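Internal tracking record. Fields below are filled automatically when a chain is submitted to the structure queue. Please do not edit lines marked as system-generated. If the sequence contains nonstandard residues, flag them in the REMARKS field before resubmitting.
Queue: standard
Priority: normal
Entity type: single polypeptide chain
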Amino acid sequence: MKSSFKRFFIFLRPSLTSIAISMIFITLVNFYVQDYRIMTSIYFVFYFFFMLFFLAINKHKTVIAFFILALPLFLFSLYALLANPSLFPLYIPANPLVGLAGIITSVLIKVKSKKIALLFGGSTFLVLLLYCFWALPLFIQAKEKRSLKVLEQTPINFTNSLIKLDKTHITPQILSQKKVVLLDFWFIGCEPCMRKMKYLQKIYDLYKDNSEVLIAVVSYGESDKIDEVLEFKQKNPEYRFDFFYDANGAFCKANNFKTYPIELILNSSQKVLSTYHGFGRETEHLYIDKTKQIIDEIIKKSKVSQ
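SYSTEM-GENERATED OUTPUT FOLLOWS
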């Protein structure tokens, strides 16, 4: 009996250690690394060296060691996906699969040969690069197009909750005076929202002399108080676009906005011509050119129709 308990404890101790280290690693990486391309690469490197270290200090069979490391990785990833489905496809399945590839590469070094391990690891890393820099941006763009079709089929529900920071109301009639209206919905403390601000300023600078274009951010009123938004604007004078406020978040709720930031580009008829969900580092370099192209196209079409 004591022998069985001892064997169980010997197995349990490294398992709990692996779970604790994996939890700390995943938490730190998700908190400090915002570029999912870099994050995915870090997963591969970390689990590769973690497995080598784990095999060096433990006497478990390689198969057992494999499951001790791989199981926590997939359990945490499954929990994260269930808690936040928007992690797909930026975080899942790429990160857990790449972490698993790092573990397998270490195992191959142990049981096979360095040549086979190098071939497998190199092939995995090549697939990783293709996924992060080619497939993932295409997937995100396709997702945005699907979201746009849904919004086009469901007219924007204009509530009377949109106001300026001086508390004057923003009505559809006011917005219809502009040929292009870009509204970016955000809240204080939203890291992607904060990061997007400087790009919105660049867009504003391109059209600041064009009175037919309106660039504005709209604060989610259920999260922020209007005085907090006013204070944010005063502390950040470099942001010269308009600041609006969605009182009690009524506009966002009426249009079923779930993730932030979310951007809408409207024409003078309040038809949604483009949407942009979130703001990941892996696609932010495309944002300026893409947004300028959309705005210029709307302006061009409006002139033709006159």
